[in-house]
Design brief:
This is ATPase. InterPro entries: P-loop_NTPase. It comes from Bacillus aquiflavi. The structure is a single chain. The longest helix has about 35 residues. The protein folds into 2 domains: about 130 residues, no CATH class; about 130 residues, no CATH class. It has a 6-stranded mixed beta sheet with strand order 1-5-6-7-4-8, covered by helices on one side. A 6-stranded mixed beta sheet has the order 9-13-14-15-12-16. Helix content is about 45%, strand content about 25%. With about 375 residues, it is an alpha/beta fold. It contains 11 helices and 16 strands. It is flat and about 70 Å long.
Length: about 375
Amino acid sequence: MKGQILKYFSGGNTAYGFYNLFESSLSGLNRLFILKGGPGTGKSSLMKKIGKKWVEKGYDIEYIFCSSDSDSIDGVIITKLKIGIVDGTAPHVIEPKAPGAIEEYVNLGVAWDSAKLVLKKDEILALRSEVNQAFQCAYNKFAQALKIHDQWEKIYIQNMDFSKANKLTNELIKKIFGKKKKEQKSEIKHRFLGAATPNGPINFIENITEHVPKRYFIKGRAGSGKSTMLKKLVTSAEERGYDVEVYRCGFDPNSLDMVVFRELGVSVFDSTAPHECFPSRVGDEIIDMYKETIWEGTDEKYAKQIEQISEKYKAKMKEGTCFLAKAKQLRDQLEQIYIGAMDFSIVEQIRNELDTKISQHAEKVYLI
């Protein structure tokens, strides 16, 4: 029987630039292999092959996807073994906590022909500069979009009944936790359920909640208290000793999009664009923040203003996405240079050595 695969992002192209949650995602591992090497050196393929092998052996794994290329992964974790492999190159450089004892560097650069790369030095440097510039332009557009989004939120915040929002949140806390409490410190993992990518927004809500029996879909408008509700749920879980998966907003990481309490079989998430979804199975329930907390007629009263803000916001987000696509195109060119200088038979040897180390670790902890 195959294991289960959990998919999420640990890095995001946000309104604050590249936002890194890798430290939280990788916390608690006993072994972490950090891959070094340029673009196109086979890091993602190596991790996918190892992940595929272990999931077929029945182990649950986590795939950490790349927000700048959603066909690639930045990391793989074999959950039960507490072993991970991660791409340790910029922009998600991993800072080791116990080098040699926990973390181990794996250099894929030994598989390239440096002489070939030297001949392409000027082209490599020029492409890297253009890639960085394209990313910066994308982040600038997203930052402008966030300022516009703040205007959008302000309309609803000014027309919100905060006492009703608090009451709704307290009722949900009671539904989820009741009087339950665990005498332990909760473990909180910070991740992204989705990301702004060169292909537009992508999310893994269905995958993340696939084995969660109870799902609460929060509906509402910008500024209607969805993120605040989620933050209060996290605090309540922490006070009661329950572990939490916290999924931050891939556009504004200061906001939350989802919380998952796997021990309780419960997930609560913002089910509005760009990750809008609807109840599809028994146990799904909608919480309508607009209906319950915003003064009636707000949409109609500010319809023209909201439409103008919405159009400006979408335009800036589209511009940002175009720059991400440009960065991806330039990075693909950079990858082709490195691919042409690689001996992938050496990369395959490295993969086999890594897999042997993982198997040896598994045997030590009596899991095989």
